[in-house]
Known about the structure:
This protein is α/β, with parallel strands linked by helices. It has two domains: about 1-165, Rossmann fold (3-Layer(aba) Sandwich); about 170-335, Dehydroquinate synthase-like - alpha domain (Dehydroquinate synthase-like, alpha domain, Up-down Bundle), CATH 1.20.1090.10. The chain contains 13 helices and eleven strands.
Amino acid sequence: MRLEIRTDPPSEVIFGPADFGLLAARHRKVAVVTDRNLEKLYGGRWREELKKAGLPELLFAFEPGEAHKTPRTLEEIWDFLARSGLTRSDAVLAAGGGIVSDVAGFAAATFLRGVACYNLPTTLLAMVDAAVGGKTGVNLPQGKNLAGCFAQPRAVWADLGFLDTLPEAEWQNGLGEIVKYGCIASEALFERLSRPDWREELSQIVFDCLCIKQEVVEADLLDGGLRQLLNFGHTLGHAIEKESDFTLPHGAAVGIGMVLITRFSEEKGLTEPGTAAKIEAMLSSFGMPTSFPESREKLFAAAASDKKRRGDRFTLALISRIGHGFLQEFDREELA
Ligand code: ADP
Ligand code: ZN
């Protein structure tokens, strides 16, 4: 199974293990960039693969976690690439979760004014989200993702085998985002997820999500209107993450955010009654939380003071029913 992403330059998602032979055919050097957890689990295998393909064994690992998605790590990667003698025609293989693809992607996009980058996502979230669309970047002390650029990966390999070692919180991150895709764009995906044997259809589920993301990304490459649909559940989700002092996984917070915002839009008559209950039931079936102790008013107020607003107007991603997302503007006061 493969999916062409019609970006410029074009990108593709290939279902299956990373093809080191293809990398060796295209480049003389390929630097694997990953985090230390993944290096422990898979570093030996990746070095072996590089060697087997006749490539030098270049692998750089940085400390895992959001706290290391920094200019400092970026500098360490540049330093490694420079010491390894990478040239314009060489490449980086970003192997890991969303943090790795963000930092390694930014390093590749800026080293020598840009070398090729390939993605090997190892989390469910990165497979359906971060590895496609070309967002890269690092955090600054003043905020998340403040420095970065759009740079499309040449290819992305979706290898579900990595999920065998994925921790529970990381599953929730991925599932929260997958439920979101179903909500905004595909009732069929939502139904697929509600079957008891959904795990057996996981590659089809990932494929469905990527098709949706592709449509949105192609239609709206630079994060304008349509991409905001992907923010469904996120406005409140971010507020919930913050209120929980980031103890709730992002996907779990987004899950709760989807339930709360959909209850709100049901009350406003914008959403088919019973929709929030469907989302709730789905999240519960995954063992994910569906409510949060803080009042909705407080969360709305926190969200309304957040950055994603234009003046006094505030755009929210909502759904009219499962599978149908739309954008609606509100007054900030109306929300608060
Ligand atoms: P994402 O942004 O995609 O959720 P992160 O880059 O934040 O992912 O990684 C989350 C954590 O999970 C990190 O500590 C990382 O080392 C770990 N991790 C990523 N993929 C795997 C995997 N396949 N098996 C075990 N741990 C993993
Ligand atoms: Zn998200």
